[in-house]
Specification:
The complex is a heterotrimer of chains A (255), B (297) and C (337). Chain A has ten helices and ten strands. Chain A is an alpha/beta fold and 255 residues long. The chains are: A alpha/beta (255), B mainly alpha (297), C mainly alpha (337). The interface between B and C is large, with 47 and 47 residues.
Chain lengths: 255, 297, 337
């Protein structure tokens, strides 16, 4: 069943076309990788889907609902979560608070509850903390959860950001270069984590430059170049596609 | 009617002169220099001190002498601006925006009340007063001194615009405004260019301060507060960071105020000006000549 | 506050070290109780009308700082015209009470309504803008309110409103009433800070885009901070009107706004005990340093710069290390294994 459907998406900044007529659909529980050379428009696609950019033309629907013109927070409310290319944790806040951010939309708590510390306030705070711990356990975070997020090692910060996105309990998770800057062992852990997230029934769209990781984890690979889709298929087919080798892999057989 | 236009253009040229410094600094390091209006005040007091040191002023010589004082004052306020940037702003360039804004508020306070401690709280009377017989042009009364002041302001503005659009220095400024890191990689001495930008902007504010002192005759330590706000308004109307836009904004604000005062009464002038500011920020935050920025994330 | 970015020299106490006896003593609950006790006992030490008046003013100032802290400290929005809300509250209650012969207490609902409205009117158009534009717009708005009060007849023009009824019979009882109201206001601000909304404020402060991506409607959340700040300021205005029984535009200048900001920055943005301490320091300092009266504001300006350069987290910083609650302590031990 189709979860996300992007059709004929175009995005231009002034005269520059960042995305040029891209169509992409993602099924429930699927892992799709979006690859392409730098500047191919991958992150722009994420930004259009999540409402940070307003597309120049095209349709974006999630479970048939139009996402265009919605605030990013409204898109998040419909079940789309994302991470950022250059880590956007709330650095001064505790790791736990960062993940609590993900539960923001689920908490039923009014200002009055907070002022009077009603039982409902206590219950929702406890629940929110438990959820945060649960997702930190899920991503396997070992660092100090009570200290500021900026104090975590880099790889752990990546995991914390994913935990924050998961606490949103999304149907679709957009990961923007989750393995960037990770060492070999951490990358293997990331592959495992991505699979476990999919096993929760969450569909994943992944932007990634590490071809090894992409080939290992993806069920489908979409290749972008200059804002256009040049290939879409199973990893093993895409890596043999002449157009892809030409445009992206630059002729190297096993980049 | 012509009188209103004339008054508006006259006040507007002051606003434009002060707004330019605001706009240049904002354009290059995206900092709202709250203390900018106080550099204008500093200019007025510096001019006051220089004139006092020069002794008595024969009224026949007042205009050339004033121009000399103007240049001396510009040098001094320019250096004060450079010092301010060096001490208060540069160490915080990578800090969160809020810290920088608060520092700027602190700088404004320190300048205002530092001047109060030095020069006292009472207004001072400028030793030079530009009087003169008004001329009648197109039904408006204006003095030769007003004409001279406007001419000086226009010369400064044209000079600045040439500097920014035609010279190497100006190119460096524009490059830093776009991308400081790449500019540094391309061999531009970013800190030096920022210092020179502060020098220019502060010098212009100082010039406006001397001119205002000589024209209105009275100066006090809080005179920069309101004009700082007005200059910001002018910069926003025209498009902050955009030099021709800022000049246009200054003149436009002068005109708007002139007509607003005529319709609503003088006591509502400032309310009217700030109302225009809020309206502009709501409807067109990039100003008349500013470019729309779509980039996010 | 992203203090880490301000320079590597900034060391944060209490983050990397285990809690000491002192830091436990300074924990908010005990500090709050101790502070309240001091405030309650103060009139037994010195109850001259002058001392009482100073202490009452200081308490009202604490409430202002607690309100501005919601906007600046929690949410990271620089408001340079906070005195406007103070003025709106004071004038609304003062004008209503004197024109319609109402007891001051009866004007409180109207004050609430008007300040909420003022918060929306200022916030709605400007909160979409970049944060530095907001600072100047609030500055302009503060001036608009002051000049308007100065020009209108209903607000008494430059001489203001006088003969405002008192809330209680005498200065001592009014002092205790003020302390009670201010304590509740401080407690309320602290509780808001620890709630879902308070967390959302901090997310916005730290990274607006990331907050938006996690589902926080940043515009609504900022507006909420603004309205909360307006309500705190407005209610402080009622206390102010009752305290002085006369108000005039001269009480609501930019200087007033800047002083409240200074209290927040000095004490520690986002830290409730910090801003209370900051407010007390700022409001009592002139009493201590009479000789330096001429240099006071100059000193404040230099202090603002100095604090931002050297200690941006303020005298009593907000903790970025989370306190363990008993049910979490166990977990944390497990996590460390």
């Amino acid at each position: 069943m189709t979860l996300l459907d992007v059709a004929e998406l175009r995005l231009s900044f002034g005269g520059l076309l960042a995305v040029d007529g891209l169509s992409l659909s993602v099924a429930e529980g699927e892992i799709v990788s979006l690859i392409g050379p730098n500047g191919a428009g991958k992150t722009s696609v994420f930004n259009c889907v999540t409402g940070f950019y307003r597309p120049t033309a095209g349709r974006i629907t999630l479970r048939g609902r139009d996402l265009r013109g919605l605030r990013p927070s409204a898109v998040a409310g419909l079940g789309v979560a994302r991470t950022f290319q250059n880590l956007r944790l709330f650095g001064e806040l505790s790791v736990l608070d960062n993940v609590r951010a993900g539960t923001h939309l689920w908490l039923r708590q009014s200002v009055l509850d907070a002022l009077l510390h009603t039982p409902r306030y206590r219950r929702s705070e406890r629940e929110c903390t438990e959820q945060a711990h649960h997702w930190l356990d899920f991503v396997g975070l070992r660092g100090d959860r009570y200290g500021p997020a900026r104090a975590l090692p880099y790889g752990e910060q990546r995991r914390a950001e994913i935990a924050r996105a998961l606490a949103r309990r999304p149907g679709l998770l957009l990961l923007d270069e989750p393995a960037a800057g990770l060492n070999h062992g951490e990358k293997a852990g990331m592959v495992d984590l991505i699979r476990r997230i999919r096993d929760l029934g969450v569909a994943i769209v992944l932007i990634e430059h590490d071809m090894g990781l992409v080939m290992e984890v993806s069920e489908r690979v979409v290749v972008l170049n200059f804002g256009r889709e040049i290939a879409d298929g199973r990893p093993e087919d895409v890596r043999r596609d002449p157009a892809v080798i030409e445009a992206y892999l630059g002729g190297e057989p096993d980049a | 009617m012509t009188q209103l236009v004339w008054n508006g253009l006259f006040v507007g040229s002051f606003y434009a002169l002060v707004a330019l410094g605001y706009s240049m600094v904002y354009g290059i390091i995206k900092l709202l220099n709250f203390a900018h209006g106080d550099l204008y005040m500093l200019g007025a007091f510096t001019g006051f001190a220089v004139l006092g040191a020069a002794g008595g002023v024969p009224s026949s010589l007042s205009l050339p002498l004033l121009l000399g004082v103007l240049l001396a004052t510009m040098a001094i306020t320019g250096l004060a601006g450079v010092a301010l940037e060096r001490v208060a702003y540069r160490p915080l360039r990578r800090a969160p925006r809020l810290s920088l804004l608060i520092t700027a508020v602190g700088a404004s306070f320190a300048l205002e009340y530092g001047m109060r401690a030095v020069a006292g709280a009472d207004p001072r009377v400028y030793p030079v007063r530009l009087g003169g017989t008004p001329l009648e042009i197109l039904g408006a009364r204006l003095t030769p001194q007003q004409l001279v002041l406007i001419a000086v302001a226009v010369v400064f503005m044209i000079g600045l615009n040439l500097l920014v659009t035609r010279t190497r220095e100006g190119r460096a400024m524009r490059a830093i405004a776009l991308d400081p890191r790449t500019s540094a990689l391309m061999g531009i001495d970013v800190n030096a260019v920022i210092s020179r930008t502060f020098f220019l902007g502060s010098a212009l504010a100082g010039a406006a301060g001397v001119m205002a002192g000589a024209y209105y005759g009275k100066i006090d330590f809080l005179m920069g507060f309101l004009i700082g706000l007005k200059a910001f308004t002018a910069a926003v109307i025209g498009g902050i960071g955009n030099i021709p836009g800022t000049m246009l904004g200054g003149l436009l604000l002068g005109l708007l105020e002139s007509f607003g005062t005529f319709w609503l009464g003088g006591e509502w002038r400032d309310v009217f000006a700030f109302g225009v500011l809020i309206l502009f920020l709501t409807v067109r935050p990039t100003g008349l000549l500013g470019e729309r920025v779509t980039e996010r994330v | 506050m992203k203090t880490g970015a301000a320079g590597p020299k900034v060391r944060r106490r209490g983050v990397d070290r285990p809690p000491t006896r002192v830091s436990r003593l300074l924990q908010n609950r005990w500090a709050g109780a101790a502070g309240l006790l001091v405030a309650l006992l103060a009139p037994f030490v010195n109850a001259t009308p002058y001392a009482l008046s100073i202490m009452t003013s200081a308490a009202i100032f604490v409430m202002l700082a607690a309100g501005l802290n919601i906007v600046v400290g929690y949410c990271g929005l620089l408001d340079l015209g906070y005195a406007a809300f103070f003025a709106v509250g004071a004038y609304t209650s003062g004008v209503l009470a004197t024109r319609f012969d109402l007891p001051l207490l009866a004007t409180v609902p109207a004050v609430l309504a008007v300040t909420v409205l003022a918060g929306i009117v200022i916030g709605a158009p400007t909160l979409r803008l970049r944060s530095d534009y907001l600072a100047i717009v609030t500055l302009g708005f503060g001036e608009i309110i002051r000049i308007t009060a100065n020009n209108l007849d209903v607000t008494g023009g430059p001489s203001g409103v006088y003969g405002i009824p008192h809330l209680t019979d005498g200065p001592v009882s009014f002092y205790y009433l003020t302390v009670a109201v201010v304590s509740l206001a401080v407690l309320g601000a602290a509780r808001l800070g620890r709630s879902r909304l308070g967390r959302a404020w901090r997310f916005v402060r730290e990274d607006e885009d990331a907050a938006e991506a996690t589902g926080v409607n940043t515009y609504r959340v900022k507006l909420a901070a603004y309205i909360a700040g307006a309500v705190w300021g407005g209610l402080a205005g009622v206390l102010f009107a009752a305290h002085l029984s006369a108000i005039s535009p001269a009480s609501f200048t930019f200087l007033q706004s800047a002083l409240v900001l200074m209290a927040v920055v000095l004490g520690g943005m986002g830290s409730v005990p910090g801003v209370v301490l900051g407010a007390i320091v700022i409001s009592l300092l002139p009493e201590v340093l009479r000789d330096l009266a001429d240099y006071r504001f100059f000193l404040f300006g230099v202090l603002l710069i100095g604090f931002m350069l050297v200690r941006p987290q303020g005298l009593w910083p907000a903790r970025s290390k989370e306190a363990l609650r008993s049910d979490e302590a166990l977990r944390s031990e497990e996590a460390l294994k």
